[in-house]
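The material for today's practical consists of a large collection of protein records. There is nothing in a record beyond a sequence line and a structure line. Backbone structure tokens are a discrete shorthand for how the chain folds in space. Nothing more is needed to start thinking about how sequence determines fold. As an example, a complete record with its sequence and its structure tokens follows.
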Amino acid sequence: MRLMEAIPNFSEGRRPEVVQAIAAPFRQTPAVFLLDEEMDPVHNRAVLTAVGEPEALRRACLAACRQAVALIDLNQHSGEHPRIGAADVIPFVPLMGTTHEEAVATARQLAEEIWQELAVPTYLYEDAARDPERRLLPAIRKGGFEALRDGAIREAGRRPDFGTDTVHPTAGATVVGARKPLVAFNVNLATTDLELGKRIARAVRESSGGLPRVRAMAVDMRESGRVQVSMNLTDTDVTPISVAYRFVEAAAAAEGVPVAESELIGLVGLAPLAAVAQDALKVGAMSAAQVLEMRLLSVLTGEKA
């Protein structure tokens, strides 16, 4: 079987019945498998992880977007996570037997279908982007749904790749792309000082001169007595998970604040976790091929571990 991965993010993290309705197409479409679903009420966001044959996976994503458009009204939505759409962002990642070029083509086809069938303007990002100024997601989501709704979508450089210069009245706009695997990694600090979290997020993210391939923001989790430094590690070969963790830990410790816990959102590849183990255990060399289950999988599938 040829497999591609999709990790669609939807702007709903407080109504389980809505998330289940959105996730249903991934359970019901032949040759597609729903591997994971996460929902967070503070971010008010759900992240699904699915794999499948590329065409079937694209159809399931479109059906899930159809549910999101019907069930989510961004005019009534609030949460800590930036967003411009009910179906906010849908990245594709090539896996077994699929290529990067196929992921780009799948993303572009889905983006066009979302506009044509659902009347939701769509943007292309990362490796599917046609405009190099719009490769990075923050550039597209600047100001959120409200900014686009109130006219930013008509500004130079902000018109969608597919659709008109008016957002869908309730579902906003959607971003679709193709990329390398990304690790969503959060570090929760034992403090309610949001300004401290913002300083650390600013220090660690690449755009502010921090660690390369790291995006970060601070999230107020006051109800649990925490401030979260929420990070996307877009290339763990460049900045491994352990390096990002130690940076945040050290920055917090310098201000007398300990780390309460860290968390991984969604699924993570074995290679980034092997790198963490290698760092923690001071192993000279370690790879995913040394993991028993990966070696068994390579034997069963004929793929190299």
Observations:
- The chain is about 35% helix and 25% strand.
- The longest strand covers residues 32-40.
